[in-house]
Write a structure and sequence with these properties.
Belongs to the inorganic phosphate transporter (PiT) (TC 2.A.20) family. The protein has about 750 residues and is mainly α. Helices cover about 80% and strands about 0% of the residues. It contains 27 helices and no strands. The longest helix has about 70 residues.
């Protein structure tokens, strides 16, 4: 039984390693996809191919060393095999749960920091067990744990955040001042100089970070680069400047696109070559430990693990298999795309849908920054300010902004600076042996460049700053949770043995499965609801034709939300009412987004089609009224049941169902009229509207009579009247919308649209 438990643990660790690879790539894809996807320099398919080649190359050329164990988070000689296996098991279970949690939220975090603090937490837990079972005290913990390493990692987080953000902002500011947004109009030699510098930085990064310690670079070449970095960089700068000039002048290539392709490849390769050990390093170290113990003939509780301090070389076939898993995950992981979206949205040049709500800290930072900017402007001469401001003038096209989803989040210059600065900082940190996190550097450089590029304007600054604070807070949260969770899991395994391991693995499987199903359901719902599309037509008939699908969508969802409110009240189903309340808020937010688009819609219009703007504004007003009534009905219904107030009486429920059935009939007819573009059917719906108005008025009169004679619950009465009055408002808004479309639609006029 003794050997079987460790064999079971090795098999479990192998499965956990594959799972960790999948969730790890979903998290770290943001490091190398952010700039290429945000700039849309190349097609998404090409980006994925370049990144896949980089990952495969990096995985195969990886030195495959168990870096974390080798660098000594804990002292292996102080532990025996049985204890080390508990540590490794706790680390892998915690790592998968933690990374999957962040991926589900769409937040980038550091796999290096999570693995280090998990090792630290699990090792501390087992060390404390050893200390107290041997009548020691807490001061002996230093014998087991390398506390200097943990301190170094924490300083590395702070250093990554501050240095990457600051350097990114400074380099982007001066690059923009020199090249401006009209970089395509600059002479070829300007692009060639920029290309020479950027490609040199990226090549140096590939050699120092990506291929260091591999068989691809000879020890002599590595020594030459290490001893003569200035000479190596100068030679590269001249070579790449010449090649960039030739490529742009004679071959008409876009140098910025080349930089982005090279940079994406470099970061993907470095990720696979260096971060691979974060996912498979612990299981490999466990496997090596298992082999050493099996061959020793000693008991698991006696075999000392001092041999673990020696570097463990990974077999090539395992690296190749890991590379394949990583590439497949990159192509198919929707969570990876979600994490990338967070980074791209926060660095987007233009306003749009903001993912994060502003908080007190983000508001104070923005206020302080505005004051500081005003004070700085008082020092700099007006003439210099005007010259700088001129370089930051963006070529604006509001017609393009209407299709913001299809446009780059930022331009090629910013994407190139992101990749160049991240490459330089990571290379420099590696050569100086500073523990900078690749995730932190790439993310904070992107945030710094977006700030310097004036992407965080008064319209979006509080949201973007709040987003960055959330992500940074998440990083420190990672470290704390990784430490605590790994320590608890290690102690549970120590107490429960194989039964605890089995229970924890089942728990992890259920949780990851639940997160996956929840994430898939969200994606499916988004597709099914076809999030309301922004109108881009330039005439009334064009807007009618284009927005018909939106109206059909709103009416269908309105019908469902109203019915769910009535049914939820009838059954006192709090869970159903809670979901329904969220659906009402979601619809209201989407319509609010359409209203925010009004500015761009009006900018698109030519004078000949100015009537379309009035139609669009009125339609948006009626849609807003519909969503507000639905949201309020959903909210008060949920609140009533949640507060355990008296149930509605049988007669009240019966009357509400009568209204619901009649309203459902009208909304269903409306849905078909818009979905099938049969606008002539609207006349029949309008002719029958009085019937529902009369029905609602009749129910109000009945409730007034009931309240006078028999009703004893004020809350009950308030809820009932609220629903009836909001139903009336809902009907009025719906009929006003129908009248607007019925009056303005002309089947003989062909809809005009924007080019």
């Amino acid at each position: 039984m003794g050997e079987n438990i460790y064999l079971f643990m090795i098999i479990a660790l192998a499965v956990l390693a594959i799972t960790d690879l999948i969730v790890g790539v979903s998290n770290d894809a943001v490091n190398f996809l952010n700039s290429a996807i945000g700039s849309k320099a190349i097609s998404f398919k090409t980006i994925m191919i370049v990144a896949s080649v980089g990952i495969a190359f990096g995985a195969i050329s990886s030195s495959g060393m168990m870096e974390v164990a080798r660098k000594g988070i804990f002292n292996p000689s102080e532990f025996v095999f049985a204890e080390i296996m508990i540590v490794f098991m706790a680390v892998m279970i915690t790592d998968i749960l933690l990374l999957d949690f962040f991926n589900t939220l769409g937040m980038p975090t550091s796999t290096t920091v999570s693995i280090v603090f998990e090792l630290l937490g699990a090792a501390v837990a087992i060390s404390l067990v050893k200390i107290y079972s041997g009548d020691g005290n807490i001061t002996h913990l230093n014998d087991y744990i390398n506390t200097d390493k943990a301190t170094e990692i924490i300083l590395g987080i702070l250093l990554s955040v501050v240095v990457a953000f600051t350097i990114g902002a400074i380099v982007q500011f001066f690059t923009r001042v020199l090249i401006s947004f009209k970089f395509n109009e600059k002479p070829k030699w300007v692009g060639a100089i920029f290309g020479g510098m950027a490609i040199t930085a990226i090549i140096y990064f590939i050699l120092i970070k990506g291929l260091k310690g591999t068989s691809i670079i000879s020890p002599e070449a590595s020594m030459f680069i290490a001893e003569n970095p200035e000479l190596f960089l100068l030679g590269n700068l001249i070579l790449w400047f010449a090649l960039s000039w030739l490529a742009t002048t004679f071959m008409k290539w876009n140098i910025y696109t080349i930089i982005i392709i090279l940079g994406t490849f470099a970061l993907a390769m470095a990720f696979a070559g260096n971060d691979l050990v974060n996912f498979i390093g612990v299981p490999l170290a466990a496997y090596e430990s298992f082999l050493s113990w099996s061959n020793s003939g000693q008991l698991a509780t006696e075999f000392n693990m001092e041999g673990l301090a020696v570097a463990v070389q990974t077999p090539t076939y395992l690296l190749l298999a890991s590379g394949i898993i990583m590439v497949v995950t990159l192509w198919f992981s929707s969570k990876a795309k979600n994490v990338v979206k967070t980074s791209v949205d926060l660095s987007r040049q233009d306003e749009g849908d903001e993912r994060f709500e502003p908080n007190f800290l983000s508001r104070q930072i923005v206020k302080f920054s505005i004051k500081a900017s005003e004070n700085l402007n008082g020092i700099i001469p007006i003439s210099i300010q005007n010259k700088i401001n001129h370089q930051f003038i963006k070529p604006t096209s509001y017609a393009l902004k209407a299709k913001a989803k299809d446009q780059p989040a930022f331009d090629l210059i910013r994407a190139s600076v992101n990749l160049m600065v991240a490459s330089v900082l990571i290379s420099l940190a590696t050569s100086l042996k500073l523990p900078l996190s690749t995730t932190y550097v790439t993310f904070m450089v992107a945030m710094g460049t977006s700030l310097a590029d004036r992407a965080w304007g008064s319209e979006s600054a509080v949201y973007r700053v709040a987003g960055v604070l959330n992500v940074i807070g998440g990083w420190f949260f990672t470290a704390i949770v990784a430490f605590v969770a790994a320590a608890i899991i290690a102690y549970v395994i120590h107490l429960g043995g194989i039964w605890a391991i089995g229970a924890l693995l089942i728990f992890a499987s259920i949780l990851i499965g639940k997160n996956y199903l929840s994430h898939t359901k969200k994606l499916k719902e988004t597709k099914e609801e076809e999030i309301l599309k922004r109108a881009e037509s330039s005439s009334i008939q064009g807007v009618i034709e284009e927005s018909a699908k939106n109206i059909a969508n709103v009416v269908k969802r309105a019908n469902k939300i109203y019915s769910n409110s009535i049914n939820g009240l009838a059954k006192q189903d709090l869970s159903s009412l809670h979901k329904n309340k969220k659906q009402g808020a979601k619809l209201a937010n989407e319509i609010e987004d359409l209203r925010n688009h009004t500015f761009y819609f009006i900018k698109n219009l030519e004078e000949a089609h100015i009537g379309a703007s009035n139609f669009y504004i009125n339609a948006m007003g009626h849609l807003t009224d519909i969503s507000q009534s639905l949201e309020y009905i959903g909210k008060v219904s949920h609140k009533h049941v949640n507060n355990n107030h008296k149930k509605l009486k049988y007669n009240q429920i019966k009357e509400l169902k009568q209204i619901d059935i009649k309203l459902a009939e009208i909304l269903d007819n409306t849905y078909h009229a818009f979905d099938e573009r049969s606008f002539e059917k609207i006349g029949n719906i309008l002719n029958n509207k009085q019937e529902l108005y009369d029905l609602v008025s009749q129910k109000i009169s009945l409730q007034v009579e009931r309240t006078r004679s028999e009703e004893s619950s004020p809350k009950n009465t308030t809820l009932y009247f609220t629903i009836l009055l909001e139903t009336k408002d809902l009907m009025t808004a719906t009929m006003n919308l129908l009248e607007l479309y019925y009056k303005e639609h002309d089947a003989d006029v062909k809809p005009a649209t924007l080019d």
